Amino acid sequence: MGVRAVRAGGFVASSAGQTVTQSPAALAAIRYGFGLLPAVVMVAAVLVQRRYTLDGTARADD
Prior knowledge:
3 helices
């Protein structure tokens, strides 16, 4: 998930001993791909899981 966002942003990988300057779009993609995007997915997962119950009697009422 995060790797795709970084690639889409134009991230350029480097080899050992190489120095590569990343574009502003690549730096933004790193921030969003490894910070904001996983946080949004986690919040969505928490909201979905709030509706789940382990109580068998509560599920039987549905």
